[in-house]
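hey
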């Protein structure tokens, strides 16, 4: 679902170790949470999502022109449903 949504909106999936079902629940392609879960790019933008044990949360970055020191947006999220909403909003925001 997520990979198709990214691709259908012009994003290139670099890494994706999870998917969302129709209810917004996550299915992991691996049995562990780790920092590098999702990365996708479009034009000058990168979406990067990881799980950080020390934060007990996902940290999501929207990066422009590979400027990792000053992300366009950095969001910490604990809810998978909120994570999906955020990723979808970024996908649709970048034309």
């Amino acid at each position: 679902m997520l990979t198709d949504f990214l691709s259908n909106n012009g994003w290139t999936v670099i890494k994706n170790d999870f998917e969302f079902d129709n209810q917004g629940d996550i299915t992991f392609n691996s049995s562990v949470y780790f920092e590098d879960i999702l990365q996708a790019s479009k034009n000058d933008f990168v979406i990067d999502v990881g799980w950080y044990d020390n934060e007990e949360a996902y940290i999501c970055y929207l990066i422009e022109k590979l400027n990792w020191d000053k992300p366009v947006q950095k969001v910490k999220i604990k809810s998978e449903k909120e994570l999906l909403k955020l990723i979808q909003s970024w996908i649709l925001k970048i034309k």
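The beta strands are 12-16, 18-20, 26-28, 38-42, 45-52, 57-64, 73-77. Residues 2-93 form one domain.
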